[in-house]
Amino acid sequence: MSHRSATGAATFAALTVIVAAVVFAVAPGDRAPGRGGTSARAERLEEASITASRLSALAVARAEGLFGRGEPITGRAARGWAGEQVVSGTRDDWEPAIATDPNDPYVYILTTRFGYPKPCPGNCPIPHISLSVSADGGRSWRDPTPLCACKGSWQYDPVIEVVDETGDVYAAYLNGYNVVFVKSDDHGRTWSAPVATYGKVSWNDKPAFTTSADGKHIYLSWNGPTGGDPWVAQSHDHGETWTQRKIVSSARYFFAYDGIVLGDGTVVLSQSSFSYTGPGAAAEGKVRQHVFVSHDRGSTWRNVTLDVLELGPLCESDGCYGDFHLGHSGVSADADGDLVAVYDGALEPYGPQQVFARTSADAGRTWSARVPVSRQGENSIAPTVEATGRGDMRTWFVVQNDTGRWNVFFRRSADGGSTWGAPVKISDAVSGARYKDEDGFLEFYGDYGEIAITSAGKTIGVWGEAFSYLGPGGVWFNREI
């Protein structure tokens, strides 16, 4: 927004008092200039500052009548799809996670929810992780509840998985800058107390995880305190106890996005890495897309560089890090254990990004040449992927059009990722929020979304849309019918 009304200014002033405790907890003058940051202390200040900015943007938008009332959703659903819906039209949600039960029609969505009401009195987190559950494949939903109304400053970065053989639900999230794990054996109605996954590693960020089919072996990757080195926290007793291993020592900063455990126990994790050596700790040089592969249940890891690409267009949204739209990835495997990895990157410095796929038929030891999934010349980001059956691969990604707005497109491969069907626009609502119109939405809200496949074999995807990087916005989803 380019200006604040008098009401908005008053609301902003009041909110400054509310969020002062969040920012006061970190010493001033220790700011992390880039998305990767430069130290754990700098990251804490950066997150506190961004949280305060998001809360102020939310308060101003509500005061000016731009957000929070819940508006009718209109649009023309794509053929074979139910039509885009929002998790909540009145709450500021971003960076969602989704999981489906392969044997029953349960669907679980987690969102990072800003603002009020808080999930508990007193020292309660802002934002908190909100859970929505569907027992019918995404057609209807229980009222959202907090995943954990735990004491603490804030919760971010939710991830969620369903154990194939039992239907138990596993989840993890950041509680402050520490990754914790919870689980449920009653379809998300109740959850265990949070278990620390980080041991003596004092600072961790951006978790992604995967589990074996029986739920016994869990691999949770996150960044550690020495400039973004990748770590893997492992549990081999259903999440009761955890060990930690740093798998790369590097000057590069790593971001975890996805993982899969194959039937033979092979673990594959997808990550990207950046060099934050530019002016003001900005990203510069190349983006590297990695998979980390373990064939011995996490005892040793092999770092495979899938691709080396250029930095794409820098994010110019309100409050955004320059590299925020860059360096996403995902990985999955079909029933035969054939792998597919998707990722984004530019072919020339600061040119439009493109989405690519590579495949592996030997448990990640070797990989195919890259295959384009999005069109060259269009700025395409944030791919996510899920596979099922024999060679049935599904992905969505986000494309910025000539008006600067964004839309989400779905593609499907029937041959293991070698060729892909025609793109289908699944962000098909043209109203329902002031940041949406016929051309798309103003900003992709958050660093990721996810895709899943229901027990009926239908795709369901979830992502964030907003006014800007600072929001406010909402989590939207669409499902095949």
Word description of this protein:
The model is unreliable at 1-33 (pLDDT under 50). The protein has one domain: 6 Propeller (Neuraminidase), CATH 2.120.10.10. β22 and β23 (392-400) form a beta hairpin. Strands 1, 28, 29, 30 and 31 form a five-stranded antiparallel β-sheet that branches. Strands 2-3-4-5 form a four-stranded antiparallel β-sheet. The chain is globular. Helix content is 9%, strand content 39%. The two termini are 37 Å apart. It is mainly β and 481 residues long. The chain has helices spanning 6-24, 40-63; strands at residues 85-86, 92-100, 107-114, 128-134, 145-146, 155-162, 169-175, 179-184, 195-196, 205-211, 218-223, 230-235, 243-246, 253-261, 267-275, 284-294, 302-310, 329-333, 339-346, 353-360, 371-372, 379-388, 392-400, 406-413, 424-425, 436-437, 440-441, 443-444, 450-453, 459-466, 473-479. The protein is built from two helices and 31 strands.
